[in-house]
Amino acid sequence: MTNLYPECPDNADLALIEPTLLFRQQVMKAISYVVLFFILYVVLLFAAIALAIACIWGGIMLFHTYPAWSTGITGLSFILLGSMVLFFLIKFLFNKRPAVNPYRTQIFPDHHPRLFDFITQLVKDTRISFPKKIFIVPDMNTAVFYHPSFLSLFWPAGKNLEIGLGLINSVNVSEFKMLLAYEFAHFSQRSMKLGSYIYALNKMLYNMLYENDRWNEMEVRWSRGSSLLSFFAHITTRILNGMQYVLRKIYAVINRQYLVLSREMEHYADTVAVGLTSTETAVSGLRRQEMGGYCLDHCFHKLPDLAERALRFSNIFMTQRAMIRYHATQNHLALDTAGLPVITDNYFQTFLKSRVQLREQWTSHISREAREAHYLAAAVQCKPVSISAWNLFNEPESIQEHMTSLVYNFTTHAGEAPFTEMTPGAYIEELSHRHRLYEYPKAFNDYYDNRPFAGINGEFTRLLTQEEIKAGSLQDLYHPENIARMRAFYRDRQDAETLQAISSGQFQTSYFEFDGQKYSAARARQLARMLSAHVAAEEIWLQQHDQRAFQYHYSIAMQRSPATAVLLMEKYTQILQYQQTGHQLNEQVIRIIHCISLLFNSGAEGMESLQALFDELSAGCRGFRMIMETLQQEKLFLNFPEDMEERLKRFNEHDCSFVQDMVPDYVAIQELHEISSATMEHFSNSIILLKKAYLEFILSLEPGNNTR
């Protein structure tokens, strides 16, 4: 047995971790609903079969009793209808869906003996059977999955294990054990196995009722054939759609009951996971999984941008690991001996979670905060194995590079220009350079990040008295409490809009959560009014605080000299001018992109139906050109790159007509999309640089700062 397997805590005994009484009650309720479902299902099934047999038998008897051409055609029609009902009923029952994850790569014990020894021991500890197959994927989770089918209701389906390499990249051996034990715990204990059966059944019913479209596609193909086939295929579809409608109504009740059961299963799985490891391991594993997921998503989202520059990662997981270290450094987190971040409570205090959660009345999802509270209450202690989980694999770099190649096989097209490989170090250096270029001075604690500067009025230039200046300071103005209050204002403003959308029916939901409490959709209007009143008061506070900050900086500048105060005002008003023009530019570009999207996604055929969209695109193009002329006349550019200058010149020569002889000019449309998007991005970055220069200027005016 491998010595990498972390020992269980001394007090760990899975036999003592029993499912709760509520869980057992929910299992029995779920089973009763399932029994009712199948009674109704069998009734409908036999009714459909009886109809089919009656049609076939009636057709045969009609032809046999009254042998003639007219009755023969009628009898044949009945036989055809009955046969089609039976055929489509079989297709409906035994629908088989292909694997949904194209990246799954099976691994074997002779290649990775340490991993299989590890899983063998964990299987014994959690008292489940060993997985039928084990796969690796480029994801952030571990998952036990079935291939649900109608037959799996009567014959247990083999369980397969899926291991995400992004997760392996983010945790140590003990944390991997905890996360894997969490998955295995759903299938341990006799009563839990019953719950897992309900899970498989629920998934099978969902696939059959909502994702079973093969038979429907066949009906569409048949409908395009002869008129006779089309007629009877339509009748058959109506019969089966009627069955689906009734069964879906019953399934909705079953699924709601299942979600209650599922929540209890999640709680039990967490109990087992922390019981077999420790509280410290469970908390750190959950946090590292979340951070690793953020960094892996970042890497995946960068693939298209890099592809446009003919660049690619040779190993996306090495880049993810470099991103984890970089992200930890940016957030002042220490790294342990395995190079993994030590994620403290303070890290999460900078993230404000929305107070409104659009969920149904019952949900199996448990928040990270609730799960951590559960782990802390368990208070389990055990010495962890802190080395990277990659130590369980042989030749990890080879596995990572193979999976990276699979990712690119599905995200790039054959025949494209050859790529240049970008190393993790080069990517992090490029990312760091961009952060340094656009990052505001730390002294302002992100107060001015991702929001516009406030407009000014006469009160902004009121000079503060010496007493008022001494009473305030840069540290007081940009204290973390003020930053937190400002962020809460923007969060609450967004939440108020969400509540209004729920109350107006724009968001279709029966229930939602607000501050962790469940409410019906009817309560959204009342909560929206309450939150909007709070947001209005906080908006006044923020306006006053922006004014107070400018008064302070303007008074400090005036102490230097009137010319310095004038220069500060010029810099601020220049930013306001850029903001106004940038807002107009952004709105115009968004209209252009939206119009292009409608053109390419429209199912209409023929220029007549698309002419209005082409006219709108031409108007958008002319509006964009007018804004660009204003920018040039008022010299509101910061320098464009040379290639952008050339593209702008070519654009100015275009007449904003995108149809030639009734044929769309797709090259011109693409050029407009690219030049407008690039201009919007460049202008937005220019505003950031202007703000940064302004903030550095006022920072240089602070008493004791001799940088000027």
What do these coordinates show?
Among the domains are: 441-560; 565-708. Helices cover 65% and strands 5% of the residues. It contains 22 helices and eleven strands. The strands form four sheets. Strands 1-2-4-3 form a four-stranded mixed β-sheet. A three-stranded antiparallel β-sheet has the order 6-8-9, with helices on one face. Strands 5-7 form a two-stranded parallel sheet. Strand 10 (659-660) and strand 11 form a beta hairpin. The chain is globular.
Distinctive features:
four-stranded mixed beta sheet; 708 residues; single chain; three-stranded antiparallel beta sheet; mainly alpha; 22 helices
Quick summary:
The chain is mainly alpha-helical and 708 residues long.
List the helices and strands and how they pair.
Elements: H1 21-65, H2 69-93, E1 105-106, H3 113-126, E2 133-137, E3 142-145, E4 160-164, H4 165-168, H5 173-184, H6 190-210, H7 214-223, H8 227-275, H9 279-308, E5 311-313, H10 316-330, H11 345-349, E6 356-357, H12 368-378, H13 396-411, E7 420-422, H14 424-438, H15 466-471, H16 474-477, H17 480-504, E8 511-514, E9 517-520, H18 524-560, H19 562-601, H20 607-633, H21 642-652, E10 659-660, E11 663-664, H22 666-700
Parallel strand pairs: 2-4, 5-7
Antiparallel strand pairs: 1-2, 3-4, 6-8, 8-9, 10-11
